[in-house]
Amino acid sequence: MKNGGNFLQLEYIFKNTKGSFVLIELNQGIFCNGKIERIDEFLNICISDAILTSKSGFFFKKVERFYVRGKNIKIARIT
User: Fold this and answer.
1) pLDDT, tens digit, 9 for 90 and up, residues 2-43
2) How many CB atoms lie within 10 A of CB 24?
3) Which of 20, 23, 55, 65 could form a disulfide with 33 if both were Cys (CB 3.0 to 4.6 A apart)?
4) d(C-alpha 27, C-alpha 76), whole Å
5) 63 contacts 4 by C-beta, under 8 angstroms
6) What span, in angstroms and rounded, lies between the C-alpha atoms of 30 and 25?
7) What CA–CA distance (Å, rounded) separates 72 from 68?
8) How many CA atoms lie within 13 A of 79 on its CB side?
């Protein structure tokens, strides 16, 4: 049950940071940063005004809205 408690704490932290900026590293090595718009109980996140950075760091793309599935998140940093 310890892992379930950690999951609920993480969900609580993310839900209270709507409107904050986040930097997410995906399992594929791609980075995405932008403003948290929505989040659900599976930690699926909708980010607005997102900037995607390739694994190599040479390619950037700005998108209006980006959706990240919770299972693809490796690291998330909220600022």
Assistant:
1) 555 565 666 676 668 888 899 999 999 999 999 999 888 788
2) 22
3) 23
4) 11
5) no
6) 6
7) 7
8) 7
60-68, strands of its sheet edge to edge: 60-68, 45-53, 31-39, 21-26, 73-78
Give dist(CA 27, CA 33) in Å, integer. Answer: 15
Q: What is the pTM of this model?
A: 0.76
Q: Are residues 21 and 35 in contact, defined by beta-carbon separation less than 8 angstroms?
A: yes
DSSP states along 1-62: -HHHHHHHHHHHHHHTTTTSEEEEEETTS-EEEEEEEEE-TT--EEEEEEEEE-TTS--EEE
